[in-house]
Amino acid sequence: MEAYHSVENWLSWMDDISDKDYVIIDRFLRDELYSGIRSFFLSKLPNFKEAGIGTDTDNQIDSSVRGDFTYWLDRKRDVQLEPFWNVVDEVLHMFNRYCFLSLSGYEFHLAHYPSGGHYDKHLDQFENRNNRMISVVIYLNEGWQNGDGGELEIFDKDGSSFLVEPVAGRCVMFKSAEVPHAVLQSHKSRFSLTGWLLYQPSALGQFFG
Ligand SMILES: O=C(O)CCC(=O)C(=O)O
Ligand SMILES: [Fe+2]
User: Which domains are assigned to the chain?
Assistant: First the structure.
């Protein structure tokens, strides 16, 4: 299949994430794919559920920590998103090839922070499950303006931090276990597509598959 982005782009993004633990890429998806995802998002809004903290077996809802509503995606069911899944395949491949990771899975959800929602500072790791390697967030907020809130706050190792505006088409990727981050209170509805590239400890399938 034809590559979605050039190798030169991938090399510079992989350099960025290796050096700084995060990379920010504007207009990551072509217009057509971006619009398809946004329409899909809007069509699913009635089905979103209040997000919890923790894993499937140990999930707690606590809107003082996290105020978003999510809709988990499923590649087999959500076939309208196939062009997006193809990009996910490419992202996985590029991390494996140029960052020497062994990624072999992913999980993605749509996220809606209603006005007033936020997410406290955290790492994208669970105590009882530590296979999230790379976090990927793509923002779908058209007409986002200064003052709308909902910025992603990324913390550096020295404790200092900076804000990333959740503008439409922007993609942020970061190392899930290394980069503490938070979502500042949003003053408008805030839309994103968020996922994690997963490390799966060497299963037999990797050798024989
Ligand atoms: O939407 C964002 O900017 C980040 C969301 C987040 O941190 C999460 O879902 O774990
Ligand atoms: Fe997070």
Answer: 7-51+63-201 (2.60.120.620)
